[in-house]
Amino acid sequence: MIKKILISAGVIVVIAGLTLGVLLVVKHQDSAHNKAPTPVSKKLVLDHSKDYGACTVVDETAIKSALGAGAANLQKPVDAGITSDRYFGDGVKNVTSDTQTCVYPFAPGASSDQKLVGANGLTIKVTKYTNPEGPKAVIEQSKKDPTAVIVPSLGDAAFYTTNTSIEGPDAAASFTLLVFKNNESTSYAIIQPAKQATFTVESAKTALLTLAK
Predict the structure, then answer these.
(1) What is the pLDDT of residues 152-201, one digit of tens each?
(2) I need a surface site. Which of 26, 48, 81, 201 has the fewest CB within 10 A?
(3) Domain count of the chain?
(4) Bridge-partner residues for 103, per DSSP?
(5) Are 103 and 116 in contact (CB under 8 A)?
(6) Is 15 within a domain?
(7) Distance (Å) of CA 71 to CA 30, 82, 111, 117, 130
């Protein structure tokens, strides 16, 4: 199975699940007399140097229509910025790309971190590859993924994956449609806490296909 990690400004941020373009900037506040170590503060910095249209590839009206009751309380999109990607697996070690992530929370009141992680919402990612061989290599690896279902007649290639078997206090149900077209790919993912999941494998697939077409 192909593995991809996203990096912002040379710093690896998150590997599993929906990965965000986040860089922790450490600021040292030295005292005037330097008598004792001072606290370290951390600030969340997002890379908005590029816009690949992740927050505009579909509009809110279309999302609410496609997702139905699951998006009844859809919130405004959160642009999580740009990340640089690195791939691991057979045939993809020379593949490079970067990705813009946009999150539409399903409910109000989430913290900034929860919104960025997309723990309960729709996440759209637009990935641009540095050369035409990039998406071809990733497509070939995706075909070998036993959890990926090939979706015919959509883009140059498309795959649908689900994960509904996660257990534990942070268990989540996830449904992802990945579509390749020319030198980029777009990922549409519904993620919900497992105990609050309103989508099934089939209903999520129908909703995501509606968004992608």
Answers:
(1) 999 999 999 999 877 777 788 999 999 999 999 999 999 998 888 899 99
(2) 26
(3) 1
(4) 78, 123
(5) yes
(6) no
(7) 47, 25, 18, 17, 34
Q: Per-residue pLDDT tens for 115-148?
A: 555 578 999 999 999 988 899 999 999 999 999 9
Specify if 57 maps to a domain.
yes
Give me the CATH number covering residue 59: 3.40.1000
Q: Residue 26: is it exposed, middle or buried by C-beta count within 10 angstroms (0-12/13-18/19+)?
A: exposed
24 inside domain? no
- 3-state SS class at 144: coil
Is residue 100 in some structural domain?
yes
Strands 172-181 and 157-163: antiparallel
**Element (H or E) spanning 104, and its range?**
strand 96-105
Three-state SS at 108: coil
* Cα(43)–Cα(40) distance, integer angstroms: 10
Cβ of 158: how many Cβ atoms within 10 Å? 24
DSSP letter string over 32-64?
A: SS--S--PEEEEEEE--S---STTTSS-HHHHH
Nearest alpha carbon to residue 176 among 167, 166, 163, 157: 163
